[in-house]
Design brief:
With 140 residues, the chain is α+β, with helices and mostly antiparallel strands. The chain has a single domain, classed as Nuclear Transport Factor 2, Chain: A. Helices cover 38% and strands 46% of the residues. The protein has 3 helices and 6 strands. A 6-stranded mixed sheet has the order 2-1-6-5-4-3. The longest helix is centred in the N-terminal third of the chain and has 36 residues. The model has no long low-confidence stretch (mean pLDDT 90).
C-alpha cells in the first residue's frame, strides 16, 4: 500500500511540474506578445537570448539586435495581436510553441493585417524561459 501511495504521489508531482512548466512557457509567450505591441528594450533584452534567430514569413532572418531595433524603431509595428490554436511541447529544457498569429500592423506607418503560423523555440535558463528562435509562415 505504501509503495502505491508513493508512486501515486510521485506521479502527481510530475504532472504538477509539467503543468507549471507549460504555464511558465505560456507566460513568456504572453510577455513577448505584449512587448511586440509595446516594445521595451530592457524587458525584451531579458526575454530574448543573445543568439536569437528570428525568421519572418518573407524569409528575412534577424538577430536579437535587429529584431529589437525593428520593434523599437517602429519599422515593425504591431498594433494588435491575437494568438489562436496554441500548442506547447516541452522536452527537457526546450519548449516548442506553435500558434496562429492574427495581427493588425502599422509597419513604417502603413496599416496592414497579417495571419501567420508561428513556431517559437524557448530555452529554459536560470532566469526562466528565453526566446531562442522564431519562424513564421504566411497562412494562405
Amino acid at each position: 500500500m505504501f509503495k502505491r501511495l508513493l508512486i501515486f504521489s510521485v506521479l502527481i508531482m510530475i504532472v504538477n511540474f509539467s503543468f507549471a512548466q507549460k504555464n511558465e512557457v505560456e507566460n513568456s509567450v504572453n510577455k513577448l506578445t505584449e512587448l511586440m505591441i509595446t516594445p521595451d528594450s530592457l524587458a525584451l533584452d531579458k526575454l530574448i537570448l543573445n543568439n536569437l534567430s528570428y525568421g519572418h514569413s518573407s524569409g528575412k532572418i534577424e538577430t536579437k539586435q535587429q529584431f529589437m531595433q525593428s520593434l523599437l524603431s517602429g519599422s515593425s509595428d504591431f498594433v494588435d495581436i491575437n494568438l489562436t490554436d496554441q500548442t506547447v511541447t516541452i522536452q527537457n529544457k526546450t519548449a516548442l510553441v506553435r500558434h496562429t498569429l492574427n495581427a493588425k500592423t502599422n509597419d513604417k506607418n502603413v496599416p496592414g493585417n497579417v495571419k501567420l503560423n508561428i513556431l517559437l523555440i524557448w530555452s529554459k535558463e536560470k532566469a526562466g524561459w528565453k526566446l531562442l528562435g522564431r519562424q513564421a509562415v504566411k497562412v494562405p
